[in-house]
């Protein structure tokens, strides 16, 4: 456990302070590492640089997939898990939406979060050792799965968790097939190259609402329309067992899901150990440990 | 204006009466007409028979599209239209969701609803003259557009409007591009061949709720899952100016829309003049005239 440093760090990505949306260029490299380091090849690194994400067709074996899915179902039906603070429940349907901190609370997911297949890619992308900033299971149940509006994760992590720079990557490991119709991840490819400084402040304990439905840190409709016209929208379909790794500043969203096919994934955020969190840049206090970890111990070690 | 006949018509498609979902085979032909009659060719008719729908790449000219879109925007911003009973407003956002009866209230849409390009196809599919059972503009605004759960239109029209048999076809004319990501029409292809008899009754004035969010007449999740596994889900993408015609008993739905791209269409229901409505089969009284017309005058005449 590392103590949070006082926030003397310069705020390179101001947000939630002004009355007008501002668009800043993103600084520094996106993919830090080179193809020689492996395992990601040059074309994949270039795609990540240009589009802000990469896809992996089969990250885990069919046996692992079966184990993970069984664990997913077990957790969703465990009443002590449902009552835990780190579990987020849908406002209307009372169904489990997310279970946070699974890389610390669950042995099966601790292992995959520290697995060399994942860590090597994250280290190559971020150009350093990495630690886990946040982890969760996301459930998008069939029929009632809710949407998530457009946002940059980095904007929230910067404002509310004190992450200095967008030198972090998210892994979304699919435990169900992603079809165009069951509310898959949508990314505006290229949007990670610009940072949208949002208006307004951050209400106290904003995370209690924002993990269910965003408010603060959501860009205005006109800016989002301009971004969509400029960058387009990629719909990330793909089979269970595959994964997406995407830059922390990608503008992304997902629609709701009225189909019978649930959409569930394991979501793990790796941050560079050279980019550890300080005091929040635009919130009265940091979010709880399950949303933004202060344990900066390198993963996989 | 024709007086509704007393309901001595045999109920071939009972629904909302039992305590258990039942699945009945659909009776009679699906595409009634032959390719010789035109304008639909043999392959298109076969597709309609098998899948329950057909698509038209370009039903209207670019000039017409422009005119229709301008009229759409004008109506959405007319306060007298918003206050009208035939206008359905989103519960949460207070945005206009649908404007009904546009084939009677609006000259531009009266014309297209009676246009030979449409009527000839509807007559060929239904094997008789046709009349307009219902018409509406559907708006699915960007960012806040809401989903529509799985349902068969015929189940509602039978239960609440007294339509004897599924000898009706819906035209959905796209006024905006349909992408996989902005909440397009989804159809379970082949599902029109079986009728799901739903449980429960119909609350009085059910239409006031059901036009915003269905309750009565919605199949149970297990039946929908079985149907999806058996038939699959077709996502109907396509450019503005194109159209879909689909059988009244197709199981269909659409997801919400968090993208900036609105999705709007003109929706017109043609019923065979040999299948005119009688008393409702499973509701205390018929829906208002704007939802189920009692003017059985042949369209296009």
TrEMBL record, chains A, B:
EC numbers: 1.14.11.55
Pfam family, one: PhyH
Protein name: Ectoine hydroxylase
Needed co-factor(s): Fe(2+)
Signal peptide boundaries: none
KW Iron (keyword) present: yes
UniProt similarity note: Belongs to the PhyH family. EctD subfamily.
Classification via Gene3D superfamilies: q2cbj1_9rhob like domain
Catalytic activities: L-ectoine + 2-oxoglutarate + O2 = 5-hydroxyectoine + succinate + CO2
UniProt xrefs under InterPro entries: EctD (IPR012774), Phytyl_CoA_dOase-like (IPR008775)
GO MF term set: 2-oxoglutarate-dependent dioxygenase activity; iron ion binding
Top-rank taxon: Bacteria
Keyword flag Transport: no
Organism: Brevibacterium aurantiacum
Described purpose of this protein according to its UniProt entry: Involved in the biosynthesis of 5-hydroxyectoine, called compatible solute, which helps organisms to survive extreme osmotic stress by acting as a highly soluble organic osmolyte. Catalyzes the 2-oxoglutarate-dependent selective hydroxylation of L-ectoine to yield (4S,5S)-5-hydroxyectoine.
Subunit-level organization: Homodimer.
Key words of the record: Dioxygenase, Iron, Metal-binding, Oxidoreductase
